[in-house]
Amino acid sequence: MDYQESDFNLTNYLNDKKELINSELDKIFKDFASSSHIVTAMKYSLMAGGKRIRPILCLAATEAVGGNLESTLPASCALEMIHTYSLIHDDLPAMDDDELRRGKQTCHVAFDEATAILAGDALLTLAFQILSSPVNKKDSQALVLLNVIHVISIAAGYKGMIDGQMRDIISEGALLSLDDLENMHALKTGALIQASIRCGAVLGNGSQEQIKLLGIYAKNLGLAFQVTDDILNVVGNPAVMGKAVGTDINRKKSTYPLIMGLNESKEFAKNIINNALKAIELFDNKAEPLRAVARYILKRKK
Amino acid sequence: MDYQESDFNLTNYLNDKKELINSELDKIFKDFASSSHIVTAMKYSLMAGGKRIRPILCLAATEAVGGNLESTLPASCALEMIHTYSLIHDDLPAMDDDELRRGKQTCHVAFDEATAILAGDALLTLAFQILSSPVNKKDSQALVLLNVIHVISIAAGYKGMIDGQMRDIISEGALLSLDDLENMHALKTGALIQASIRCGAVLGNGSQEQIKLLGIYAKNLGLAFQVTDDILNVVGNPAVMGKAVGTDINRKKSTYPLIMGLNESKEFAKNIINNALKAIELFDNKAEPLRAVARYILKRKK
Fold first, then answer.
1. Is the CB of residue A109 less than 8 Å away from at least one CB of chain B?
2. What residues in B contact A120, CB-CB < 8 Å?
3. Fewer CB within 10 Å, N side or C side of chain B?
């Protein structure tokens, strides 16, 4: 797991990790040996072709501190379950009312609303079942796992992701100040991204200093991801992105290009990615995947 | 905490414990120092006057094995949060579509559907935050707490409470067999009641034998609770119960009186309460609250 910038291939890395995560998720669902209605709906959304960004960042953080991927893999799957549950609930008619996600019907369309609500609930609950699972329960690891559960529950909770979604709904149609926009995103998507990286570092036995620096990296990365998302919604190519552009303007959504201007948004994204890279500049080559992800965010077309 | 049957006053006991739990819940919400929209909705439903049966059973199980209530109190509050989240989601229009609960507007009526979905999500997540909270994190306790989180997440999850609710929705209008009815209730309400008692015993450092016997008690108690609930829906006094009776028949719900007959249901309830009492007959007087709860279930009028 020693990487050189020159020969580091991010596409291969992302594909390898995605495969690792998907096969672990498959294994978890196979262990269930259940084909109940609720499990069918959970699997439908969990295996709907997500990019696995959060679990990959979690694994990459473990690598960056020189840790062992095996002890991080279940937690990374739990993070993807929490992400998926939040998408299922956000897509509901009472929330964003979306019928398609990644070209597939959303859970409440493919099944029904009641099933979608319960499938989301069940994925959130399953995440904590996985995190507290006996296979992980070596005595010395128990306190670390309890810490990880605490970090994730705070990030996903009423002061993190859920508050972000609540603010997003409440502010619909209103033009936010730059501060409010940043706060909303920091909660809605930033909190779980930060938690993913922190948990990867903690499970990899990173030092306090490493965990702190990765926290700065994570904060800037999460923000940059949102800013470039907003930019792509203005200038992206629908054919490449596989989804419509211009939807934010149509929905009167507060975005970075709208509030600070398109060129200023691009400059801003560049600056915060530099902050992310600077935070981990003293890490060795094992942090190359995290650096490559950060650089990629500026160049991404989808 | 030594009780004698002759002078044991269940009403006082339930009131004392309820006060203890409510003041701990108040403390948890005060520590939040947050008055966000989502927290207001969470508090609204959590403090809407619940009977606190699950946390009380959890505390009583700790007492029954001679344990210390202090280390069980946070977990008992977490159990009530999980129970409340399940009620908020079950009441949603896409599920049971109930507008009133305990004489108050349900969460989605008092606020709106999006807020209710998120408030439920947030209470479920908060439960795991409380269970993994630093105040509980003595090294020796970490493995116990991880075990408790695992037991609760399984009971509340896709093979427990959530599957029960799913089956209840799917089977609406169909007459269930006695086996299917029992399975559905064992999942929908039984699983979390059993987990409450198990966690109380585990946190109170009960022996494996004690935990096993309390498991038998819990299984029978949960079932008896449901049977008597169905009976009251036929023969209860609406003025005493504070809610309508005869609603199960109107909704064509499968119930014990409908499937096995009213008198047979009463006999059945008596038998399973006897099983519950028999399981803990060798426990000393510290189990008197659990015995009194079991006896009360047969006599309850609401």
1. no
2. 121
3. C
User: Which residue in the block uniquely carries the two structure tokens 């439908």?
Assistant: A44
Question: CA nearest B225: which of B190, B197, B257?
Answer: B190
Contact B75, B22 (CB under 8 A): no
Phi then psi dihedrals of residue A105, to 5 deg: -60, 140
Taking residue A31's Cβ as centre, other Cβ atoms within 10 Å add up to 8
User: For the whole model, what pTM was predicted?
Assistant: 0.95
What is the three-class DSSP state of A155? helix
| Residues of chain A found within 8 Å of residue B114, distances taken between Cβ atoms | 92, 94-95, 166, 169
Gap from A142 CA to chain B (nearest CA, Å): 5
Domain ranges of chain A: 10-299
By the 8 A CB rule, do B88 and B112 touch?
Answer: no
The pLDDT-based confidence of A54 (bands split at 50, 70, 90) is very high
Could you tell me if the ipTM is greater than 0.90? yes
Largest CA distance in chain B: 54
The pLDDT score that the predictor gives to residue A4 is 63
A contact residues 238-257, partner B, Cβ 8 Å cutoff: none
Residues of B in contact with A35 (CB under 8 A): none
Hey, is the C-beta of A122 within 8 angstroms of any chain B C-beta?
Answer: yes
Q: Looking at the domain A10-299, which fold is it?
A: Farnesyl Diphosphate Synthase (1.10.600)
